Amino acid sequence: MAYGLARRELRPRVPLRPGEGEKHRLTSLEGLAALSLDALSSVAYGPEAIVLALVVAGTGALTATLPITLAITFLLATLVVSYGQVIAVHPDGGGAYAVARKDLGRTASLLAAASLVVDYVLTVAVSLAAGADALASAFPALAHDGLLVCLVGLALLTVVNLRGVTESARVLMLPTLLFIVAVLGVVVVGLFRSHPVAVVGTPESFPVQESLGFLLILKAFSSGCSALTGVEAIANAVPTFRTPKVKRAQRTELMLGALLGLMLIGLAVLIRRDHVAPRGQVTILAQLTAGAYGDGWAYYATNLLVTLVLLLAANTSFGGLPVLMSLLARDHRLPHLFGLRAERPVYRYGVGALALLAALLLVATDADTHRLIPLFAIGVFIGFTLSQLGLVRHWATLKPAGWKRRALINGTGALMTTVAGVILLTTKFLEGAWVVVIAVPLLMLLFARIERYYTAVGEELGLGRIPEAPDRRTGSLVIVPLGEVSKLAQHAVTAALALGDEVVAVAVHADPSRTRALEEAWERWNPGVRLDVIDSPHRSLVQPIVDYVQRAARDGRQIAVLIPEVEPRHRRYEILQNQRGLLLATVLRARTDVVVCLLPYRLTL
Question: Could you tell me the keywords of this UniProt record (predicted)?
Answer without folding.
Answer: Membrane, Transmembrane, Transmembrane helix
